[in-house]
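task queued by scheduler; priority normal; single chain, no ligands, no partner chains; default sampling; output format set to structure tokens
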Amino acid sequence: MPHLTRTTRGTASTEVRIGFGIPGFAHPLVAPAEWSELTRPGTPLKWVVLNVANGPGERPDPHCLEAAGRLRNAGIRVLGHLDTTYGARAFGELVSDAHRYLDWYQVDGFSLDRCPTERAALPEVRRTVTTLRALVDDAHIVLGHGTHPYPGYAETGDQLVTFAGPWSDYRWSQVAEWTADYPPERFCHFVHGMPRGHLDEALRIARWQGASTIYFTDRVDGGGVGDPWESMPGYWDEIVSRIGTGVSE
């Protein structure tokens, strides 16, 4: 049983309605089955990150445009991938990438990957998010910290990724106590290297820690060679059936 910090959510946390957030599959030409599967009716899908080339790329990609269009037609949010490089990326570069995503793919918001976590970086992240919200009506903003950040970030993004890593860490993870002040809809957990036999345990952890958006996969981190999020897990059908249908925010 994982060692978890109990929060004020208590037993109500087991009632969290869970759905998927897709961190970003490989290019549609490389992973056509994955992109096609996302529009299957009944899949509890909240949003999908479109990452063309660690960003929007240098020119519109017709294959990505088609994939994004199918998702939007199915009523699924498409988010542009913006790499903040832990705060090292220039504000102007991020906004320029955002404009390209909007002009070329009509995205519904943005996922800020490698988002800073420390208090000192919060004002600049807030500046970036405020600018992004001015570009898109009802923009959905996901802050991809990968761990628990300074609590003030919860007032900036619509959702925070408070865990992104291997199952070997997730099963013993602890939730920060301040997250109990916010609803589960605010938090996302992404777990790779998770065996099929631990699906129930992983779902219990997500519910207990108050995260309503997840992505679990048996793919592993290739140490910079491969991205574990680029393809679907071998147990995709099983986890879809366990979560159920009709999940919405």
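post-processing summary
- The CA atoms of residues 27 and 161 lie 23 Å apart.
- The first helix runs from residue 32 to 37.
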